[in-house]
Write a structure and sequence with these properties.
Length: 407
């Protein structure tokens, strides 16, 4: 027959509830093996049908509330059985974990309950940066498996979940701000522990972060005297962030050092290959002539003094010697001649342009020297006067002669 919620006597519901919850509770405790508890509502409703009670939508809602009550009681019983097998300090750690996972905190900590979904495009490369993932349900599972021996290990795993979030998302991310709130909640609960347990749960004990001396003094003053003082909750967010930033900076520094080392090795290998090639390409007479050219060190010194004015990179003796040995192929000589043949205004932008090739700068150099020798001819070969007018060394034309040497 049809009936509604009003037709169901509440005493009958309680009677059936007691009849159903007891065997269900035993079955769940046996079957769950200290894991997550899920009671099938259909089983409870089937039990009502077996007692010839009719069920409608309103009664279903009542049954769901009843089942949730049974689940809560079973979980409480499991927690009590688990805590009886834990030491005192692990009981305190388990209590903190339960409070963090409780309903009032679920809005803040829901992102830390389960592992990060690495298949999500927003978490690309997660395992490359986070070598030891951690989440709250995993900590609960480790408690169920009696994997912890001290409260230090428990708090270390909780802090690891916080650090992983900040380390992956960065200190200024929205999720990192939830991690800061998570850390504050944790520190508030740790502040209520006894002195001995608080010593085992400090940042220094669980993560290796050195706690400043003033923080230790403040912690000691809390338990000094005969009257209990108000708990001081240190703000360790800055220390956590400083630690993570220091680790990231160390990793970046190591990566830079590795890249520099790789570049150095590549440069050394290329230089060695060039030396081997030059041993075959240059004959002994060219090497002897370069070795005896005292002008090359003088030019190198000049380019060092005028490096900023000419907008040139720092040159070394070997590059300069090689540039005179093979001027057509030398990029170094191309940079030098490009700078010398450019105006001061154009010279400021030379680092953003490639140097002139040999055929271009040699043609411009020839054109400029033709103008100099034409002026020399017009001044009746007065070398000192022309050199002074052009801003050249007085011995310039004396060394090169009266005739144009470039053809």
């Amino acid at each position: 027959m049809d009936c509604t919620l009003h037709d169901v006597n509440i005493e009958v519901v309680n009677e059936v509830s007691n009849a159903v919850s007891a065997p269900l509770s035993d079955a769940v405790v046996t079957k769950s093996n200290n894991k997550d508890i899920n009671i099938d509502v259909e089983k409870v409703m089937h039990a009502f049908h077996q007692h010839d009670y009719c069920i409608d939508a309103d009664v279903t809602s009542l049954l769901k509330r009843m089942v949730r009550s049974v689940e809560a009681s079973v979980r409480q019983e499991l927690d009590q059985r688990l805590e009886l097998r834990l030491s005192y300090e692990l009981q305190q750690g388990y209590r903190i974990l339960k409070e963090l996972m409780s309903f009032p905190n679920s809005n803040v900590l829901k992102y830390f309950f389960d592992p990060v979904d690495v298949e999500d495009s927003n978490h690309e490369g997660y395992h490359d940066r986070i070598k030891k993932p951690m989440w709250l349900r995993k900590i609960k599972q480790k408690f169920d498996a009696f994997a912890y021996e001290t409260i230090t290990e428990v708090v270390a795993d909780i802090r690891l979940a916080i650090e992983n979030c900040i380390r992956y998302h960065g200190p200024n991310n929205v999720l990192s701000k939830k991690a800061y709130r998570f850390n504050t909640m944790l520190e508030q609960k740790l502040a209520l522990l006894g002195w001995e347990l608080r010593e085992k749960t400090t940042l220094e004990a669980t993560t290796g972060v050195s706690v400043s001396t003033p923080a230790k003094v403040a912690l000691a003053l809390e338990f000094s005297g005969t009257r209990r003082r108000k708990a001081i909750v240190p703000n360790d967010n800055s220390q956590l962030v400083s630690q993570i930033r220091a680790e990231e900076e160390t990793k970046r520094r190591q990566a830079r050092m590795q890249n520099m080392d790789l570049k150095r090795r590549a440069t050394e290998a290329a230089t060695q290959k060039e030396k081997e090639w030059e041993e075959v390409f240059f004959d002994s007479s060219v090497k002897k002539h370069i070795a005896k050219s005292w002008e090359i060190p003088q030019m190198n010194h000049f380019f060092y003094l005028t490096q900023e004015a000419l907008n040139l990179p720092l040159l070394n003796q070997f590059e300069l010697e090689r540039s005179f040995a093979m001027p057509r192929e030398s990029r170094t000589l191309g940079m030098i001649m490009t700078s010398l043949l450019s105006t001061p205004t154009t010279r400021l932008r030379l680092d953003k342009k490639p140097p002139m090739p040999y055929r271009v700068w040699s043609r411009r150099l020839k054109k400029k020297m033709l103008q100099w020798y034409k002026l020399l001819q017009d001044k009746d070969y007065n070398r000192e006067l022309v050199a002074l007018k052009l801003g050249l060394d007085p011995t310039f034309f004396k060394i090169l002669g009266k005739e144009m040497v470039l053809t």
